[in-house]
Amino acid sequence: MIRLLLMQISEVYLGLGQDAFAQLIRGISIGKLKIYQIYEGFKVRAHLTKVNTEALRKAVPKLWERISAGDEDFAKDLAQAILVSHLDMIGAVLDFVGVPHENGFFAKDMDAKPYFTDGWEERVHEKFRGVYTEAILLFYVNHLRWELLGATDVYLPVSPSAV
What is the rounded CA–CA span in Å between residue 7 and residue 1? Predict the structure, then answer.
C-alpha cells in the first residue's frame, strides 16, 4: 500500500500551534453556526452540552487533545465552524486572489486551482495581516492549500509575526 504524503487537516491545526488553536476556537460565532444550521451538529461532534463562549473556552484543551490524536472527522467539522464564522475574511481573500464566489462559497463544480498562482500565500498574508487575526488568516490559507491544492506541509510566513 502506498501512503500519499498529503497533509491532513489536523496537521494544519498542529502546525499553527495550540495558542493559535485557542484563538480559532474563541473566534467561533454561535450566531453563524445557527444561521448556517450547523450548531447542533457541531455541538454533538464537539461533545459539548451547550455551545457558548465559556463552554468553548473551557473545551480548548479537550478539543486540542482530539486534534492531536488525529480525529480527522472532528477536525473537518471544526474547520467548517471556524470558517463560517469568518465569511467576511474569506470573501475578501477570494476577491483579492480573483476567485469567483458567492459570499465566500465556490460554485459547486468550479475548479479554483488555476487562481492560486505561485506565491499567492505570501501575497494574501501581506495584504491581510493586521486586518484579520494571524491565526484565522493562516488557518484559511492552509485550509485552501489542504482542500484545493493537496498541500503536503503547513504554510507559515517567513516574517517573525507568524501566529
Answer: 17
